[in-house]
Amino acid sequence: MELMTRITSFEDLKKIKSSLDSFDKIVEEVKAVSRDPVEQDQLLTERIVFDLIQSQARKAEASMSKQNNYNQEKAASTSAGNYHMKIRKQSLGSSKDEDEYKCIEEKVSKLIKKKQNKAKKAVSMRSALSSIPSPPPDMPTEFKNKIQSLHGFRVQLVIQKEIFHTDLSTHHDRLSMPKNQVSNQDFLGEQDKKKLKLEGSIRVKVIDPNLNEYELRLSEWKFKSRSCSGLSKSKRSSSFVLNSGWSKISENKKNKLQRKDIIQVWSFRVNNDDNPPIYGEERLCFAVVKLTDTDTD
């Protein structure tokens, strides 16, 4: 709101929209100065505010003969809601201008809010990562024995992550494993990749923290983040997901899975007993290991 109260006319908003065309360039300049996301957000905000102040100074100088200092101070101290209504009446000449004003105003507001949320998310992510053991602990002996009893082989760590509320949601019924956090992308074989591409999911065996076995599905979900047109480019991300029965594991009280707990997901292979084999000679399996107990807030 503080930033928006600096915008005194419809023409100012047009100038801001024009300046945002080079927003990516400004971001790159800020990144060259600092690597800290929070500091980057602060510097970026200060740069935008500085540009606005400079623009207002030039305009004030040009229109000094038309407006006195008293009117400017009064306008600056007016509440944001009433102030914007006053500006619309004075500077907007048609309903088309009104619509364009609202559109630009919304874009500027969303951009600032997005940058603030990104900074908060970066702080939260750093806090989460700081609680994850590094280097990752080895697989517990009881899990090694369980996998050995299944004649499992090719054991490897897939991901070590913090449990989030959506991982425990019955509505979502899935454990998300963000692809950019997966420590070993080679846990999928060529047959697995083909099945995922053709059918969207594959059947897998999953061992829970209490060594119980479940039949679940492994899927790959791809996301495209929404962006405000003209202000930022859309980004793509993807996650591997254990679903179609994950809630049986997350809701099992014996597993005691809670938000902020740290877990590991390991993959291994067993010989396929299906006749005929559904997914080739080997079958993909997973083991979910709970590392920490964390009290929820």
Q: Topology as H/E string? A: HHHHHHHEEHEEEHEE
Roughly how many Å is the radius of gyration? 27 Å
Compute the number of structural domains. 2
Distance N terminus to C terminus?
A: 31 Å
* Major sheet: 7 strands, mixed
Principal-axis shape equals: elongated
* Secondary-structure content class: alpha+beta
List the strand order in the largest sheet.
1-6-7-3-4-5-2
Please identify the top-level CATH class of the largest domain: Mainly Beta
Question: What number is the mean pLDDT?
Answer: 75
Which percent range fits the helix content?
40-55%
Main location: nucleus
GO molecular function: DNA binding
InterPro entries: At2g31720-like, DNA-bd_pseudobarrel_sf
Subcellular location: Nucleus
Describe the structure.
GO terms for molecular function: DNA binding. Keywords: DNA-binding, Nucleus, Transcription, Transcription regulation. This is B3 domain-containing protein. It is found in: Nucleus. This protein is of the alpha+beta class and 297 residues long. The protein has 2 domains: 4-130, no CATH class; 141-290, At1g16640 B3 domain (Beta Barrel). The chain has 9 helices and 7 strands; from the N terminus they run H-H-H-H-H-H-H-E-E-H-E-E-E-H-E-E. Strands 1-6-7-3-4-5-2 form a 7-stranded mixed beta sheet. Strand 3 (201-207) and strand 4 form a beta hairpin. Helix 1 (10-20) crosses helix 6. The longest helix is centred in the middle third of the chain and has 36 residues, at 95-130. It is elongated.
